[in-house]
Write a structure and sequence with these properties.
Elements (H helix, E strand, L loop, with lengths): L28 E5 L11 E2 L7 E4 L2 E8 L4 E8 L25 E5 L8 E3 L5 E9 L2 H9 L17 E9 L5 E11 L9 E2 L4 E4 L5 E2 L1 E8 L2 E2 L2 E2 L5 E10 L5
Antiparallel strand pairs: 1-17, 2-5, 3-4, 4-5, 4-7, 5-6, 6-17, 7-14, 8-12, 8-13, 8-17, 9-10, 9-14, 10-11, 15-16
């Protein structure tokens, strides 16, 4: 049997306020989109119920689809909820990292209708250096304990080689695919049970190998699948997106 939810503890810098820089000479400037400028409703989250279809943070536009008839959303939303103990769909807007406090972050949930992108508003290509990623509470506790739709990772014996993975894919301004990066949000494949984990801490993921891109989209895969696809709740929490902006020579 697996014990408690395992944490991956990595260095995580303090939030950096998004700034815009123009300098003479030198190389590109690192810009950080930390989402702290977003105005969060009293609910603690924004899910697109205003029908706008997107939100903007720094130089990036994040797509959103809201279906009023069902009260559901796809694509990107933003939140500052950090209930890391309540299991289930009713807690879909929380990040599982207990250190998050009231920091704002973005959530992604895939659309079944097609890709929803995060796009640079200037329509230029930029190198995304990294993003901080974490599981949502709903996803993490579903994998830890199982629920009515998803299995407990590791299974009853604790030896099932379960895994949950996110794939981030970049495209340039001509819509040409530049590459993809995989990152495991949970991994129980090792024969050494002490190496099994469910990601429960903000973790910086290097995306620089994508090269210069104008937009990215996100997809998921999991060992726990059924007739209708992935059973694992397919949510991803995102913060502190860092990208390179070429400096303007004045």
């Amino acid at each position: 049997m697996r014990s408690s939810l395992m944490l991956i503890v990595l260095l995580f810098g303090s939030a950096i306020v998004l700034t815009s820089c123009q300098k003479s000479g030198g190389g590109p400037t690192v810009q950080v989109v930390d989402f702290e400028s977003l105005v969060v409703p009293q609910t603690g989250y924004w899910n697109g119920s205003d029908g706008s279809g997107f939100f903007v943070a720094g130089a990036l536009k994040f797509g959103n689809e809201y279906t009023a008839a069902w009260g559901t959303w796809d694509g990107f939303c933003f939140s500052q909820k950090n209930d890391f103990t309540t299991a289930g769909y009713s807690n879909e807007y929380s990040v599982v990292d207990p250190s998050n406090l009231k920091n704002k972050f973005v959530l992604f949930y895939p659309s079944f209708a097609g890709d929803i992108f995060a796009t640079f508003s200037d329509n230029l290509d930029h190198t995304i250096q990294s993003m901080d990623l974490c599981n949502s509470t709903y996803t993490a506790l579903s994998m830890k304990n199982g629920d009515g739709y998803s299995k407990k990772f590791g299974g009853t014996s604790g030896t099932d080689p379960d895994w949950f993975k996110v794939t981030i894919t970049g495209y340039d301004h001509t819509n040409t695919k530049k590459g993809s990066i995989d990152f495991y949000l949970a991994d129980f494949r090792s024969s050494d049970a002490t190496k099994d984990y469910i990601l429960a801490k903000w973790t910086t993921v290097d995306l620089s190998s994508l090269g210069k891109v104008n937009k990215v989209t996100i997809s998921f895969s999991s060992s726990d699948t059924g007739t209708y696809g992935i059973n694992t709740p397919t949510y991803l929490c995102i913060d502190n997106l860092k990208y390179l902006e070429d400096q303007v020579i004045l």
